[in-house]
Amino acid sequence: MSTRTAKIRRFAAGVLVAALSMSVAACGKSGGAAQPAGDGPKALTAAVPYPGPEANLPTRYPDPVRTGAPVDVGIACAACQVPGVALAADQARKTIEDLGGKVTLLDAGGDPQKQLNQFKQLVAQHVQAIIVQPLVETAMAPAFLDAKAAGIAVITIGSPGDTTRPLLPGVVSDVTFGLDRAAFEKAQHLAMNLPKGAEIGVLGYGVPSDSVKYGVDRTAYWAEQFGLKIAQRADVSELTVNAGQVAGTGMLQRNPDIQAVVSFTDAVTSGVLVAARQLNRRQVFVCANDYDKNGYQAVSTKNGSCSVRWDWEDLGRFAAQAAYFAGTAQGTLPRIVTTGGGTLVTKDNYESVPVVG
């Protein structure tokens, strides 16, 4: 197994999320992120509503009509060993079956080549629609066109992460995580818990992933709009507690005024909290995504910390509704539908939000 494939497998096991929709880019470059049209003004106040590019996206698909005709839907699961991804796949399966359809679910286990082969297998089976969360967008692109040529509707999850980008050719519709809204809400939470001008650190992920890059970049962007200062950006090589601890130690040692650290996944920021304790920087708190056991531990024990719990169940349900709707030719679907950016989990609501995994 190549080093690149091994890293992407670790990504699938660690992220989710979100985004699991990837291409080629690294998260650790310094400087500001792109600012797509629709962004709010500079110097946002903590109480401002979300003004970004996802604000006006539709939040549901048309209700599909159960036709009674045989409908086969394929699910090319990216990594069903990841609890959130498994939740989405299971909800998609249930929704299709409730509509009277048949499901073929294939699990790539985080392997991009295996996902591509399984997608081609579903095309060869002549299913009516395929749901897929692409591990590597560019690798899947030709297969999406093959599916379109065969009359198969392709519904993606979280691809592209940046909803201002076009869908890949051959894709009918995408269900988005809402990465920009989630980034805004994390940054807004930071602004409400830190003084204006406070320094924060940003940990990205040095493995090809447009979605992770976009999510991290947008968190940094919105933090700056709320008047916070990015003291340092750095990469981790894998999404683990140990990697977060190593990166967090270096970041906190070089930046004595950092008060909070943000990243894409709770495992990384959990490691940062370990580093902060060891360095006697106990005032440092963290914000990330997933709300797994690491996120729960951070939010429940460290004032100020937050985690975004992605709406995995809605991601699966929406994708299934779109697949059935398109697979039975019931009309035109919206280009992108959003699940709303997940739920921001804080000390105020963590007991009422289900932990993932």
Automatic annotation (TrEMBL):
Database matches in PROSITE patterns? PROKAR_LIPOPROTEIN (PS51257)
Span of the signal peptide:
1-26
- Which InterPro entries is this protein grouped with? Peripla_BP_I, SBP_2_dom
Return the Gene3D superfamilies for the record. Answer: 3.40.50.2300
Q: Signal: is it a keyword of this entry?
A: yes
A cellular component term, taken from the record's GO annotations: cell envelope
| Domain of life of the native organism | Bacteria
**Residue ranges of every copy of the Periplasmic binding protein domain listed in the record:** 88-324
Subcellular localization: Cell envelope
State a single Gene Ontology molecular function. carbohydrate binding
Keyword annotations of the record: Signal
> Would you identify the family this protein belongs to, as annotated?
Belongs to the bacterial solute-binding protein 2 family.
Q: What is this protein called?
A: Substrate-binding domain-containing protein
Q: Which organism is it from?
A: Amycolatopsis pithecellobii
